[in-house]
Design a protein that fits this description.
single chain; 496 residues; alpha/beta; Rossmann fold; pyruvate-formate lyase- activating enzyme; OB fold (Dihydrolipoamide Acetyltransferase, E2P); 3 domains; six-stranded parallel beta sheet; five-stranded mixed β-barrel; 18 strands; 35% helix; globular
Length: 496
Amino acid sequence: MQGFHVEHFGCRAARADGEAVGDRLRAAGHCVQPAAEADVVIVNTCSVTAEADRAARAYIRRAHRLNPEARIVVTGCYAQRAPEELAGMAGVAAVVGNSHKALAPEIVLSLAGGAAGMAPSQTMVSVQSLLAGGAPIWADDRFAHSFLEEAQLTPGAQTRPNLKIQEGCGNRCTFCVIPQTRGGSKSLPAAAVFRQIEGFVASGGNELVLSGINLGRWGRDLPEVPGDGRAEVFGLPPLRQEKLARMGHGAFEVNPATQSLAGLVRQIFEQTALPRLRLSSIEPMDWNADLIALMAEFGGTRLARHAHLPLQSGSDAVLRRMHRRYRPWHYTEKVAALVQAAGPELTLGADVMAGFPGESDAEFEETLAFIRSLPFGYLHLFPFSPRPGTPGWAMHAERPVPAAAVVERMAALRELATQKSETHRRCFIGKELEAITLHTPAEIAARVRTAALTDNFLPVEIEGTYAANRLMRVRVTGLNADLALEATAEGAGRNQ
């Protein structure tokens, strides 16, 4: 048995990848340890900004300094975008790009077991890296081994784990490096989705988050469902079907006409006992009528009243330069439809970027005005970061926004985001909401309170001490200094 440590950078989908590697290592008998003591340190990188690259490099240097004997394995988006750059760093024993992510557990296990590495017949090793004296690299542009399916999810360290059902992106936004680092869109087959949900519910799970790089595109790359669409298309053996029937679920069925995210979600509600499902970020154009109808039908009961629609800019001209596939009026229509479907308790979130090449003061003011006009509950804010190999890299060279202007715009956005968040949260004082308890941090537990998250994605501290993974109905009594809701427990949630 050897110790390992996984350090996560980046988005929910990236974290799911790192957790899947960790699950495989635990299943093989290895144990989690702090980075300073581990035999193998896995650095799961992001590369969406230059700052993300710098943070990963700084962590690798620090890990090597604190634990010179550790074998460092670098994976994730930075490992795909610039593998040679990482392979030459001190302490790095292997670089595994997203193209070979499914092989990452095996590669790490070979290092943990003391083996020299993987056989070239199983993966592609960068000859250039080996000749230069760097670590071996597993990366190419075919992405043949890119989908890393998680081990069975359970409500453990994460009360609300992510189930990544989609990988990659086929969009070509001018600022984004994701198509280079993760390849085209790929979907986890419905069979695997239902097996995960079945196991999660059986282990006592109450809330599961469906995530992906471009989640709304789930299913579009999958083959059509043959025959009548019954359970055998999921690969479920007869004994499993009998077990499901005894549990009252019957055999899973798939409607061949609904091989889409909306179709999958409806099937989850119709054929499983999952108490609550949450959808992570979905592009505005992928919130179609079927998906919005599900929010109207199940929002507030089994579907979380929470929608994250990436925005990036409220200026039509900037969106066009970004090659985003919607205009501000499209976005406004989607928000209006979602609010009508879910009601005013919907929490709306968005990503917003400041300083895209050529963004004028007037265009930035359009973004501020647009944000003010919509009922956002929170914003994720980013300064533009030129990524090598993207059109935005050349656009930045031709028309950069001065750094001082970017700093000012980020400050204005942060102030507006705080105002929007506080206004949204104050609306719930005196109201009852559904919530799920989390693992409570020590500083909150010391005040005899329990950390929780409402179904509409608001942090809440409940008076009293309660175990994690409990669905509860709470009454909001106020906001604390950090703008978290304060609440009292009203009893078990409607789903319990």
